[in-house]
Amino acid sequence: MDPKLIEAREYVIQARAALRSGNNDTARDLGEKAVLLVPDLEDAWLILVAADSNPEDALAYAQKALELNPESSRARKAVEWATSQLNKAKAENMRVMAQTVPAVMQEAPVFRPIKIEEPRNTARPAQKSNSGRMLIYAGVFLGLLICAVVGIAVWWAVHSPALASFVPASNLMPTQEALWAEVNVPKPSVTPIDVSAFAPQSTSVAVTDEPAQAPTKVPSREPKSTPVPTEGPTFTPEATETPGIMAMEIVADTPTSAYVPPTAPPPGVVAGGNGGRWIDVNLSTQSVYAYEGDTVVNSFVVSTGTWLTPTVTGKYKIWVKFKSTSMSGPGYFLPNVPYVMYFYKGYGLHGTYWHNNFGTPMSHGCVNLRTTDAEWLYNWASVGTVVNVHY
Predict the structure, then answer these.
(1) What are phi and psi of 12, to 5 degrees?
(2) According to the CATH classification, is domain 237-390 in 2.40.440.10?
C-alpha cells in the first residue's frame, strides 16, 4: 500500500478524535496534512468540512469531496449541511444589519446653522480685512498639509509591512493557488453478492477462520481463539468500530423506548423466498428484521454507521461467525466483542457493550445490537444466511 495513503489515513483518524473532543483547530490542521499527502482522499475533505468555522470554506470542501466521488451519500449530505450553515450565516448578517442601521441613524449628530452677527465696532476696517486674509491663507495651508500627510500615509501603508494589514488583502496579496491538482482517479465500487440462488439455510452454527463461498460445518461449536480476519477491522478502519469511550463522549446515554416488532414486512422489502431465513437491515429506521420467508419472526433497534463512515448497502451473506472476538485498529482496541457475524469484509452484526444509544447511527460501518439481541440473532442465523442492507 502507498505509504502516503497510510499516513493520510492516520491523520484522518487523529482528526476525527480531535473533532470528538471539540478541538476543531487541530482537526483542521490534520485534515490539511492529509489533503496535501493524498488530494483525492474523500475522508480528508469531509474532515475539513466539519472542522472549518467558515461556512463558505466548508461548502467548498464539501463540493470538492462530491466532485471526487459523485456517488457518495456522505459527500451529498456534507454539501447540504454546509449550504444550510451558509444560509443561516447570511440570514444572521442581514438581521444584524437591519438592527444596526436604524440605531446609527438615531445617534447621528444634527448640525444646525449658526448665525454670525457682524461686530458693531467698525472703527478699524483695515485690521478686519487683514485678519480675513490671514484666515484664508491658514485654511489653504492646513488643507495642503492634510493632503500631504494622507498621501504619505497611503504610500507608507502600501510599501511598509507594518501598515500593510490596514489595506484589504485582496488589493495587495496575490491569489492563493490551489493546493491540489485536478486528476481523474478511478473510484472503487462494491458489487453486492448475488444470493438469489441460495437455498434456505439450516439453523446450525458454523465457525471458520477464513471466508467461504458456501456454509461450512465444523465438528465443535466451542468458540476458537481466532484473530480477526485480514479483511476485518484491523486493516479496514472504515469498517471497524469506534471505541466505546469515544462514542459515549459524543452522544449521551439515552436508551430508546421499547420497540414493538411489526407483523408484516416493511414497505419496499423483498422477501427472502420460500420460508428460508434471512436478515433485513433498514438503515433509515435503524432496525434489523429476522425473516422466515415473508414473515417477520423478530426485530431489533440497532445503531449503524454514521454519515462519515456509512454501512455498505446491497445483498450479502454471512461468511464467518465468532461467539467472541477482538476488534482493533489504529489507536483503539476492543476486546471480547460478543456474537460477531461478518457479512462483507469487516462489516458485521455484533453485540455492543460500549454504548446504549441504539436507534442512532454510532458505528464505523458495523451493525451494533444489544448483546441479548445479538445472542438471539447469532443462534438463529448461520453461515450463508442472506443479509439485505438498504435505506
Answers:
(1) -65, -45
(2) yes
Please report the pLDDT score of residue 340 as a whole number.
96
Q: Where are the domains of the chain?
A: 3-85, 237-390
Give the Cα separation of 141 and 281 in Å (integer).
Answer: 85
3-state secondary structure of 25: helix
Which CATH number among 3.40.47.10, 3.40.50.700, 1.25.40.10, 3.40.50.1820 corresponds to the domain 3-85? 1.25.40.10
Model confidence at 334: pLDDT above 90: no
- pLDDT tens for 304-324 read 999 988 999 999 999 999 999
- Which of 242, 223, 247 has its CA nearest to residue 366? 242
Q: Which run of H or E residues covers position 387? A: strand 386-390
Give residue 299's Cα distance to chain centre. 29
Cell digits for 69? 466521488
Condensed to tens digits (0 to 9), the pLDDT of residues 115-136 reads 555 555 544 554 555 677 788 8
Spatial contact of 353 and 247, defined as CB atoms under 8 Å apart: no
**How many CB atoms are located within 10 Å of the residue 85 CB?**
18
Q: Compute CA 391 distance to the chain's CA centroid, rounded to the nearest angstrom.
A: 19
